[in-house]
Automatic annotation (TrEMBL):
This is 6-phosphogluconate dehydrogenase, decarboxylating. One of its GO terms (molecular function) is NADP binding. PANTHER family: 6-PHOSPHOGLUCONATE DEHYDROGENASE. SUPFAM superfamilies: 6-phosphogluconate dehydrogenase C-terminal domain-like, NAD(P)-binding Rossmann-fold domains. Keywords: Gluconate utilization, NADP, Oxidoreductase, Pentose shunt. It is an enzyme of class 1 (oxidoreductase). It catalyses: 6-phospho-D-gluconate + NADP(+) = D-ribulose 5-phosphate + CO2 + NADPH. It comes from Asparagus officinalis. Pathway: Carbohydrate degradation; pentose phosphate pathway; D-ribulose 5-phosphate from D-glucose 6-phosphate (oxidative stage): step 3/3.
Length: 393
């Protein structure tokens, strides 16, 4: 290679490795792009979503080529210069974390419809196809409808019922959750989806637990009769509301990292390039784009006026689905995490005051008051004993 040549790495790479390689390439006079690529087989055929970060000069040199390779949507090719350093790989990592959340939430909707509603695979194929013509329109909803239709070539029934319930992973979801923890960003839906994959891998342990707890006399909750039509609509609304929370968590993680690294990420533009080609492409990404266009400093998608109205309108159905799942003994960690995230974020006052009091008692970590400035420490045990002694007298 000669000075001025560019290297483009299109793999799922840890962003710090990309930043190290950029420095090494610069030392040799070379340009380097770490480019996230999403789309799978369909993206390879019809154009993926591309997330290049690193050398701006390298991007300018290949922009025309990347624009032709990328998926095309109504407002342009699904590629943009993400930012400096390892920003492209970081954005792709968070994209994958959001993807984990999406897939977990869809699997929970499937479980509730199948276990509580007693719906057949063909019925679910029809339902998901209907959902794909509305607010839930997305690649993942579309392919889920197709999956339910496929018959088993080696036996009776549909193939989906013959698949072992152990989910694989490549590691980007774990990286996303680790980064959320490092940056103190709440991402419970994405974390729940990762935990779900970990637990799915414990197939033998789960089978043994089912047997042991059955022998111990655990009572399987009785499934009550439900209005199927009402259940289907409730699950649709719960899935949509949970999805908003999952995307909000991912976007907040991107903002936090952008502020830390000085990347100046344009969250609305990221939503735009995810509208086509990639695995999480969905109709409502256009609405996310517009939300950040209305307010680039939007602290959370939940408080965008349009999304706020939708969350409020759907919370009744959301709570019914989560409550029904708990009552029926069905785990819905993604939906539960999303609902808890929503309920925590919307409360002006939380019970964290008690946690701070506990921390101050055992570790003298101090606390702040709501009625006066400054940090305070209290001799809690001493005062509690004095109070007890006074009461006895």
């Amino acid at each position: 290679m000669e000075p001025g040549d560019a290297i483009i790495d299109g793999g799922n790479e840890w962003y710090e490795n990309t930043e190290r390689r950029i420095r090494e390439a610069q030392g040799k006079g070379l340009l380097y792009l770490g480019m996230g690529v999403s789309g799978g087989e369909d993206g390879a055929r019809n154009g993926p979503s591309l997330m290049p970060g690193g050398s701006m000069m390298a991007y300018n040199n290949v922009q025309d080529i990347l624009s032709k390779i990328a998926a095309q949507v109504d407002d342009g090719p699904c590629v943009t210069y993400i930012g400096e350093g390892g920003s492209g790989n970081f954005v792709k990592m968070v994209h994958n974390g959001i993807e984990y959340g999406d897939m977990q939430l869809i699997s929970e909707a499937y479980d509730v419809l199948k276990t509580v509603g007693g719906l057949s695979n063909q019925e679910m194929a029809d339902i998901f196809a209907q959902w794909n013509s509305g607010e839930l329109e997305s690649f993942l909803i579309e392919i889920t409808a197709d999956i339910f239709k496929v018959r088993d070539e080696h036996g009776e029934g549909e193939l989906v019922d013959k698949i072992l319930d152990k989910t694989g992973m490549k590691g980007t979801g774990k990286w996303t959750v680790q980064q959320a923890a490092e940056l103190s960003i709440a991402a419970p839906t994405i974390a729940a989806s990762l935990d779900g994959r970990y637990l799915s891998g414990l197939k033998e342990e789960r089978e043994n637990a089912a047997r042991i707890l059955d022998q111990a006399g655990i009572e399987t909750p009785k499934l009550r009769s439900v209005d199927k039509k009402k259940l289907i609509d409730d699950v649709r609304q719960a899935l949509y509301a949970s999805k908003i929370c999952s995307y909000a968590q991912g976007m907040n993680l991107l903002r936090a990292k952008s502020e830390e690294k000085g990347w100046n990420l344009n969250l609305g533009e990221l939503a735009r390039i995810w509208k086509g080609g990639c695995i999480i492409r969905a109709r409502f990404l256009d609405r996310i784009k517009k939300a950040y266009e209305r307010n680039r400093a939007l602290p959370n998608l939940i408080v965008d006026p349009e999304f706020a109205r939708e969350m409020v309108q759907r919370q009744g159905a959301w709570r019914r689905v989560v409550g029904l799942a708990i009552e029926s003994g069905i785990s819905t960690p993604g939906m539960c995490a999303s609902l808890s995230y929503f309920d925590t974020y919307r409360r002006a006052r939380l019970p964290a005051n008690l946690v701070q009091a506990q921390r101050d008692l055992f570790g003298a970590h101090t606390y702040e008051r709501i009625d006066r400035p400054g940090s305070f420490h209290t001799e809690w045990t001493k005062l509690a004993r004095q109070t007890k002694a006074g009461a006895l007298n």
